[in-house]
Design a protein that fits this description.
The structure is a homodimer.
Chain A lengths: L11 H18 L7 H8 L3 H8 L2 H14 L13 H18 L1 H8 L6 H22 L5 H25 L4 H16 L6
Helix pairs in contact in A: 1-2, 1-4, 2-3, 4-7, 5-9, 7-8, 8-9
The structure holds a DNA duplex.
Protein name (chains A, B): TetR/AcrR family transcriptional regulator
InterPro entries (chains A, B): DesT_TetR_C, Homeodomain-like_sf, HTH-type_TetR-like_transc_reg, HTH_TetR
Keywords (chains A, B): DNA-binding, Transcription, Transcription regulation
DNA sequence: CGAGTCGTTGGCAGCGTGTCAACGAGAGCC
DNA sequence: GGCTCTCGTTGACACGCTGCCAACGACTCG
């Protein structure tokens, strides 16, 4: 079934898509260094040289995969119920935890992907930037950008850690994770301390 | 001066130390993949084979470096001035920021080192465990371990993010970083929300 | 059905890592 | 002081992986 069909011609976009799809599977369960271009080619049913032809570099393909993963969650967060800041924050956190629970594999793959890489960091930073905008618009539309956007971006670091405590280590259950995120997000949005 | 002295014999422990010291310098300013064993050998003034002789693997040497970096901050945190929880928390954060400022290169190297690596994660998790103990003992000795240790560990994720906002991106100044960490740490230690 | 286009392939060159047998610096002994 | 023995140290070898490139041939157009 579905013969290998070596050398069959394909539309460049479709071929790119096949390669990215295969790479997505491999990088989701093996760290970057453990995946060779040979593996990537085999998974896509293609000659190894084609990887370089389309993406130039193994790293570039990896960046493409990361880009796909981080731009998936662009679904709307806007429809939050009216109410107090606490209620709205709780609803936002619930929505987020639902999303994480649904895509746990991919979420963890991104979080533990390959931080420390300058290019990967740039992509993640870009995604965080967008997410921070959404959070501020939804929960603190009147807060000035200056400290608060950076505060929210920092908050995402805690979000990743807490996700791993919940999904990987099991030291937090979902309710405990929710409580933590709500507590901290409120603290981040309300600057209490005197400098 | 200080002739190369090729092939000079040295006590194994001293030699290990020299290699680790050189590796520490290199990994502090270049990502893992960008440092070759040849570089490591040259930096230590030694033949390349000796790296493998002492550490077996480039990765093992890297893990050793990470272990050193994460266990350095084992100096005492105990001497916090008496006072309110807010004052003590502020003092702890100040102490921490001083340490980060002093070793910024190394701190960033660890934080952005190679997350996603199973072995590195294990070392970082171990270090976080110890640090969480210290924080709890110093600031909330009566809090039950169950949710609070995991909450503090999650907090360290925000600490890393905030450090990068401060040192790398410059979107937070030191005062702003301090305010954020104090606000969040207090929120983490005081569970406000109702589950 | 023949010719041209371009998606695709396989092999080549270079680099980096891990292994190993042999060398020789330094210590101990006579 | 010279000899010997230990073991820290070296350099070369084999292998795997990446990026590059010229040739191949599948598909299209006239």
């Amino acid at each position: 079934m579905t013969a290998p069909a070596r050398g069959r011609r394909l539309d460049p976009d479709a071929r790119r898509e096949e390669i990215v799809a295969g790479a997505l599977r491999l990088f989701a369960e093996h760290p970057y260094a453990a995946v060779s271009t040979t593996d990537l080619a085999r998974e896509a049913g293609v000659a190894r040289g084609l990887i370089n032809h389309y993406f130039g570099t193994k790293r570039a393909l990896y960046l493409e995969v990361v880009r796909r993963l981080t731009t998936i969650p662009e679904v709307a967060v806007e429809e939050l119920p009216p109410g107090t800041v606490e209620e709205r924050t709780g609803a936002a956190v619930d929505w987020f935890l639902d999303a994480v629970d649904r895509h746990r594999g991919l979420w963890l793959a991104v979080g533990t992907g390959a931080a420390g890489d300058i290019d990967v960091d740039a992509i993640l930073a870009e995604a965080d930037e967008i997410a921070a905008d959404r959070v501020l618009a939804a929960l603190a539309p009147d807060a000035p950008d200056d400290p608060y956007r950076a505060r929210v971006r920092s908050f995402f670091g805690l979000v990743r850690s807490a996700s791993r405590e919940w999904l990987v280590r099991g030291t937090l259950d979902r309710a405990g994770t929710r409580a933590l995120l709500v507590d901290v997000l409120l603290a981040v949005l309300h600057r209490d301390s005197q400098v």
